[in-house]
Please model this.
Amino acid sequence: MAELTYRDAVARGIAQEMTRDPDVIFFGEDVAKAGGVFKATVGLYEQFGPKRVRDTPISEQAILGAAMGAAMTGLKPIAEIMFSDFFAVCFDYIANEFPKSRYMSNGQLKCPLVVRTGNGAGSRFGAQHSQSIENWAMMIPGLKVVAPSTPRDVIGLMAAAVRDPDPVIFFEHKSLYPVKGEVPDGEIVDTLGSAKIVRPGRDATILALALMVPRALAAAEKLESEHGLDVEVIDVRSLVPLDTRTILGSVARTHRLFTVEENPRLCGWGAEIVSIVADEAFYELDGPPVRITTPHVPLPAADILEDMILPTVDRIADTVRRSLSA
Amino acid sequence: MTKKPSRAEPTPRSAVNDDIGEDLRLRMYRMQIELREAEQRAYDLFLQNLVKGTSHLSLGQEAVATGFAAAMRPRDLSFCTYRGHAHTLARGVPVEKVLGELMQRDNGLMRGKGGSMHLTSVDHGVMGSYAIIGAHLPIACGAALRAQYKGDDDVAVCFFGDGTTNIGAFHEALNFAAVWKLPVIFVCENNLYMEYTPIGDVTAVEHPAGDRAAAYGLERIVIDGNDADVVYRTARDAYARARAGKGPSLIECLTYRHSGHSRADPAKYRPEGELEKWKERDPIKIYRARLKQFGIGDDVIARIDAETKAMIDAATEACKKAPNPPADILTTDVYADGGWAWRN
Model:
């Protein structure tokens, strides 16, 4: 067991898979010699060499297209898109090419690849380098979508993503890169499509993803210490496949549902889950499901403004408390 | 061909035994006829409302697909566009499978799940037809990257139209392939029109691909795309270059489509006489003259024509009899487990 940052876990997760499988290659902008703009891939170039770890030009379409071509002909590429906001300049591959090739070809083509990307706010970079766009990926049939919240999950879900035969979008949260966590020694392999109850509780269920997980946990602590409420927190981890069994099971025990989403409100991932719960567990609910999201606005750059607009520990705790006492 | 064809007139041995030779020429002729007749059949079936959706024909552009396919090895990979029927057939995919897909029947290449614009036959090296302009150039780079990485000797070839040269992915892919010296061949079929608009009206240079080559350190190659021999020889050189580790090629083939952009387009924007002028340079016409020049008789040509037509007639009948695709394939092959489950 060792303590590792989320940032270092990215490199360890990739290294674990590159060591295991010579067909795994990794490329992106500034990822090799410079070790990535977030320093999440330091050491990979030195360990695996220029054939397997490559710097690309600033060509997001070429990066994703090349990953797809390599994947469909036998490699297992990991491609980096530096900021998830840049998905917008290469969205053809994410929306039209990766996820549809197998279906359109009646199963002839395969696309086993991982796109990892820096997602989310907290760096004061403004509206084009801070978005949470996991819902952009979630809405496309044919993709798998994961967003780890801890160093251990980074390694385990990276392994699961690389070993998965489908295209996987791997959202790393930029504000989590410096966060440390306990990581066991040896190989770690997780499962796509499994949510994790990170804090059991009886009074309400809070679903959260990535940076919102530690905030939801802090809010749960606050609710317990200040109001005596016992709140369950679930790290959703994987949007596709979605572990509805764990979510519905929790709602059946707590009878209240809250989602904490960093994405802007409209069509955020929580909306889909709320609709599933409304369909399938309506009579388990003792009150309306409540979504706590970033408001439906572009993100501001200023630290003071950015801090106000994301769901905060206080906003989560207040919303849950008011809703439960209503 | 195992049987020696008859000859209308005596031919110098040197001509018959040039670098292409009689067997390959006859195969390239047969292929061009197959492409011409199959595309014409697709058009006829559209008029009968039997070909559904859209279709983009390569009538008049048969020499490009034929010349490149003739220069390929079986393991080489083709990446095509929505105008991909000809390139798919040229790799040996049966006409029935292509027409079946155009007619959206269960016997189609993808059982109706892809349609005319997405013809794919991995067994024949046809790694997909891509309907978003420029998308497949980077994908072909990736296939070439795999070949380079694994030390495989196959080459990826990517066909696209003149309109593609003005989209970003074209430039990203060219640079990417050049920087990494990838074994990939980019083939621009310049048929003078991007869709309805003349390419010259919207492009800063005269040769949309050829004049861009220098920007990526590549040789400017602009060829007669209506002469299958010229295409074949150019392709052969590009394959040799790619297999020798010398990197990508960008080849602009000058050609002309006899039909409109898609089935919806009567091509009224063409200046008067332009089509007629190009029909004088019809690849089939050129190649029939070439065969005669090398001493191949009219009877041989007529036999190939008749055999091809009979084969396409039979394929058409098989497609007409084929059932519609069943509902149970609606949700198959979304994910690699064969299904579509996104939740537990």
Notes: The two ends of chain B are 57 Å apart (CA to CA). The mean pLDDT of chain B is 94. Chain B is about 40% helix and 10% strand.
